[in-house]
Amino acid sequence: MTQTQTSGATALAGAVDPVTLEIVRNALNAVAERVTGRMIRSANSFIVKEMEDCSAALFDADGRLLAESANSPIHLSCVGVCLATVLEHYFPVADWNPGDVVLCNDPYAGGESMATAHTNDLIALSPVFWEGRLVAFAGLMVHHLDIGAMWMGTRGWGAEIYQEGFRCPPLKLVEQGRIDRKLLAFMLNNTRVPETLENDLTSQLSSVQAAADDLLALFRKYGAKEVAECFEELIAYSERRTRAEISRIPDGVYCHEEPILDDGAKGGPYWLRLRIVKTGSEITFDFSGTDPQVIGPINAPMATTWAAIYYVMRCVTDPTIPSTEGCKRPIHAIAPAASLVNARKPAAVYQRMVVCHSLVDLAMGALAQALPDRVMADSCGCNYNYTIVDDPKSARQMMFGEVAPGGLGATSRGDGIEVMSCHVTNCPIPPIEAIEMEAPVLYLRREYQEDSGGAGRWRGGVGQVLTYQVMGRRPRLYRTSQKSRSLPQGFCGGLPGKGGRWIINEGRAGERVIAYAIGDLESFEQGDTVTDYTPAGGGFGAPHEREPWRVQADVRAGLVSTETAEKVYGIKLDPATNEIVAVTRGAGPTAR
C-alpha cells in the first residue's frame, strides 16, 4: 500500500506583506502553545500535568497544517492525519457547526490505521467560524490515564485491539456548544478513574474550543482575505524551503534495517527494513520487507509511522522552516498493509512506540550514508516504567510511573544529551516529589549511569539508574525498554551505548534480573524495589579523536570512569586530582 501527500494549492508568491506574514506565523504558534498550556494547567492526571503528554495543532478549512505546539512529535502529525480521516469518512466540511467538538480514539477509524495513535490518546477537533464560514480547525491530542482496557492504563501484553479499552469512532461529543452527556457517561462508565477522566476530558474540550477566540482575533485584525493569503503563503514557503533542503541530499538509494524485541521477547527479534529513494526535491521512505504485524501491542498505525518520518525529516532539515503542511508535501511513504509499520485491525497497537522509536534510528541509519553531518547515532529508544498497585485507602487500582529517559545519540556537532525522553516521545521527567505525593512509592535513587554513553569523538548521552520501593499492595510492574542486546549503535567510528536491564531487589534478598526488556506484567511483593538501568546513546566519531579536556570533564562529572578514560580514550588521569598525566594515542604516550 502506498501513502502519499498531495501537492495542494499553488503558492500566492509575493501576495502577502512579509512583516504581516511573520506576525501571523508567530501568532498561530502562540495559539497552539496556549491550547496545551491550558490543558496542562487544568489536568488531574500526572501523565498530563507532570509529563505534559498532550499536543495541539491548527489547520485551515481544508485540514492543512498551519502550526503546532512544541510537545510530543508522535502526537503532532497524528492530529492532522486523524482530521483528514474525519473529513473524508465521517464529517465533511458541510457537517460542522460552531461549537462542535468531534472526539476520536480509534486507531482504525476510516478502515485503515490513519487516525489516532492508540486508544488512550483521544483527539478532540473543533471548527473555527468567521462570519458564518468555516475558516480553520483546532486539534488537541491528550493521553488519558485509563480508558478501561484489560489492565489499568492499558498496560500488559495485549494481543488484540479489543483488549485496549473502549474505542470511540469520530463522534460529536459537543454539538453546537452542548455536550452529549450520554456519550460522556458511557466513557466514564468504562474507566477505573472516572473523576480523573471527567476532569481531563472536559479540560480537553475547553482547551481546544478556546483556540477559536484566539484565532478569531487574527481575522478581526487583518480580515478574512489577508489571513487566508497568509495561510497559503506560510504553507507554500515551508514547501519551498523543504524542497530546497531535500535537493541538497545526494540523489540515491539508502538502505538500513533495525531489530525490535531484540532479546527474543515474544518471539523476537523482528525486523524493520527501510529503503530511502531520494530524487531531486522528493524523498520516499519504502518499508517493503518489514516484518508482518505481530500478536502483541507493538504494531504501529500508519499515522504514527508518518509521525516518525516527519520527525526525522524535521531533524535533518533547517529547524527555522515553519512547521506546516508544506513540509510534508515532498515526502512519500510505501508501507505494506498489516505490517509492523502499517497495522490493520485487530492488531493491538498500544506499545507502538517500540516500533516508532526504532523507526527514527532506522531512518537516521539510512540517511547517515548521505548526510553524516545531519544525523544522530542511536538513542535509548522506548522506555516505560509503570507500576500498578491497589490503593491502600480504597478498593481501587492506581498507577504511577514515567516515560523513563535514557541517553540520546551523539551527532557530528556534539555529545548526546544525558537522561532525556528522546525523539518522538519528548515528555518531561516527572518530579520525584510529585509522584511520591500521589502514589505509594518511595524513590531511593536516580543518578547518571557512569560509562554507559557510547565512546566517540562526541560521546553518547548516558543513561540513568532509577530505584524505587513500592509501598502499595499487590504491585505489578509493567516495563518496556529497548536496545538490551542489539546495543544503540554509534556512527562514523563511534562505539555503541550500553543496553538496558531491570532488577528486582538489587543488592537485597531475593534479587533477580528480569529476563526480558518487555512483556507481561511482572508481579512482586509490597516493599520490594525496582531498579531500571536505561539504555544510553551511541557515540559519533572515533574515541581517540575526543579532545583530552572533554574526557577529563566527563570524569569529573561522573559520566566516565578513570579506567574507561585510559582504556578507551587513551587519557590517563591522576585518580586523586583528575589531572591529565598522559595521553596514550597514536605513536605512543605523551606526557603532560
Kindly describe this structure.
There is one protein chain. The N and C termini lie far apart (62 Å). With 592 residues, the chain is α+β, with helices and mostly antiparallel strands. It is built from eleven helices and 24 strands. It has helices at residues 18-42, 46-49, 73-89, 181-188, 194-222, 224-247, 302-316, 353-367, 432-438, 548-556, 562-567, and strands spanning 2-4, 54-60, 65-68, 101-104, 121-130, 133-143, 171-175, 178-179, 252-260, 270-279, 282-286, 331-334, 384-390, 397-403, 441-448, 464-470, 473-480, 501-504, 512-513, 522-523, 529-533, 571-573, 580-585, 588-591. Residues 1-13 and 587-592 have low confidence and may be disordered. The strands form five sheets. A seven-stranded antiparallel β-sheet has the order 3-2-6-5-4-7-8, sandwiched between helices. A five-stranded mixed β-sheet has the order 1-12-11-10-9. A five-stranded antiparallel β-sheet has the order 15-16-21-18-19.
Outline of the structure:
With 592 residues, this protein is of the alpha+beta class.
What is the residue-mean pLDDT, rounded to a whole number? 92
Portion in strands: 15-25%
Low-confidence stretches: 1-13, 587-592
Widest β-sheet, arrangement of strands: 3-2-6-5-4-7-8
Shape: globular
Helix run count: 11
Distance between the termini: 62 Å
- Helix proportion range: 25-40%
Number of strands: 24
Q: Could you describe the largest sheet, including whether it forms a barrel?
A: 7 strands, antiparallel
Gyration radius, to the nearest Å? 24 Å
Structural class: alpha+beta
